[in-house]
Write a structure and sequence with these properties.
CATH class of the largest domain: Alpha Beta
Order of helices and strands: HHHEEEHHEHHEEH
Shape: globular
Number of strands: 6
CATH topology of the largest domain: Chorismate lyase
Mean pLDDT: 85
Distance between the termini: 48 Å
Helix content: 25-40%
Largest sheet: 6 strands, antiparallel
Radius of gyration: 23 Å
Length: 187
């Protein structure tokens, strides 16, 4: 009965319209991709809150703890070392001032209307205490604990304009992101 009904309702014009709608829907889905979640958004979604603590900052570099707070106190979820591309492009001066004042890099640029892009340089594992003696204390971990490290070039774009901003090294708490998860997100 179903096949008979299907056969009777078949019309070449309807089938052509169906395929056109399907094709247009697929093209729209491909063109309207959501921007990648920011690290700050990922932390907030996972732990319910997020904040940045700038540990060190000068004209060349910013070191910060991207953390969540809970029963255990502040726990660094990402230890971020930002090496700014110098000389700084003057079109990014206002955003750069906000970042030096403690603003979350991705959020500052997106709020100013920029698109953000990450170009992975390396993803690897490192012991918690190898990169910085601060990390084990900030993350409440043993210094030998293996952590995922993501190093990438960070650029901002607006239309055809593309400006390199920094090379960023992020070291992630093992409860937050692993090497395998980083590969899933960035490969």
């Amino acid at each position: 009965m179903f096949l008979h009904t299907l056969t009777l309702s078949y019309r070449p014009q309807r089938l052509a319209l169906f395929w056109q709608i399907l094709l247009i829907g697929g093209l729209l889905a491909a063109c309207s991709s959501e921007p990648e979640l920011l690290n700050s958004e990922r932390i907030e979604l996972r732990y319910g809150n997020y904040a940045v603590r700038v540990l060190y900052s000068d004209e060349r570099q910013r070191v910060s703890s991207l953390y969540s707070a809970g029963i255990e106190g502040e726990v660094c979820r990402t230890y971020a070392v930002v090496d700014f591309m110098l000389p700084l492009d003057s079109r990014l001066a206002a955003e750069h001032r906000s970042i030096l004042a403690g603003g979350s890099i991705g959020q500052v640029f997106r709020q100013a209307g920029w698109q953000t892009e990450k170009y992975t340089l390396s993803i690897r594992e490192t012991p918690a205490g190898e990169y910085s003696v601060q990390i084990p204390g900030l993350m409440q971990l043993d210094p030998a604990e293996p952590l995922a490290m993501h190093r990438y070039r960070f650029e901002v774009t607006r239309g055809e304009l593309r400006i390199p901003y920094a090379v960023i090294t992020e070291i992630h708490h093992p409860d937050y992101l692993t090497v395998q998860q980083l590969h899933q997100i960035y490969d």
